[in-house]
Amino acid sequence: MFKNASDYFREKDVSLAGKVAIVTGAGCEGDGLGNGRAISILLAEDGASVVCADLNLAWAEKTSDILRLEGKGKGVGCQGDVTKPGDCQKIVDITLSKFGRIDILVNNVGIMGAKGTATEFDLDQWRRGLDINVTSMANMVKVVVPEMRKNDESLGQIRGSIVNMSSVAGLVGGTPHLLYPTSKGAVLNMTRAMAAHHASDGIRVNCPDLDRDAVHAYDIREGHKPEDQRGAKEQKPFTNRGKRVGLRDRR
Fold first, then answer.
1. Which of 137, 164, 219, 239 qualifies as a FRET site for 250, CA 20 to 30 Å off?
2. Reduced to 3 states, what is the DSSP secondary structure of residue 177?
3. What does the pLDDT read at residue 204?
4. Which residue is catalytic, options 180, 191, 196, 205?
5. For residues 243 and 5, is the Cβ–Cβ distance under 8 A?
6. Is the pLDDT of residue 248 over 70?
7. Angle 33-37-42 (CA atoms, 0-180°, nearest 5)?
8. Can you name the residues that pair with 209 across neighbouring β-strands?
9. Pairing between strand 104-107 and 160-164?
10. CA dist list (Å): 120 to 115, 117, 163, 173, 182
């Protein structure tokens, strides 16, 4: 029996050597270990080169320093506001200039957003929350997918892997505020749509729900065009407890 997910994947000898990942929201204040920093470390441990992007450059560079100082892999910190398309393109350009390719994108940026129920929320904060939690992910995918399409197929015809971070709140609600579960539910369905749109490119799109230590994966089988209605039947949500984020073949 494996005590935890890390033991499982160490035993499986998973390697991301030669792969390049972008993690948004990769920073964290001080020596803390937020989701973005933890994801960056795990990717680097498996051999990937990681571009650590964050609105706060000092936090991003702290994460990349951890990767280098602990010998976990190559890391580069960069500043970017992923609600701005120009900054998203800048992150991609930095990645290409440093490493020459993009294999993995982890859309990790998110906030709690507007407080209150439907009768209480502030409209400006609501719009800002949706922009950060949902639109930012679409912004990054828009500029990353064209680069992933250039990759040779590997690991079971996979050219790239996109991971959109969600929450159990997006499935069941149950929070005191309306914005957060609304936005996270949108991320889940956006992931389904992206999986259908980009399957023919050999690009996989998954949505981990870290609150349940699970991965909700939406897989469109080969041979189905995105517009093919049969493809919807081939989207199979399932739960893989303990599996970690990365560019791995799960077929």
1. 137
2. coil
3. 93
4. 180
5. yes
6. no
7. 105
8. 214
9. parallel
10. 8, 5, 32, 17, 15
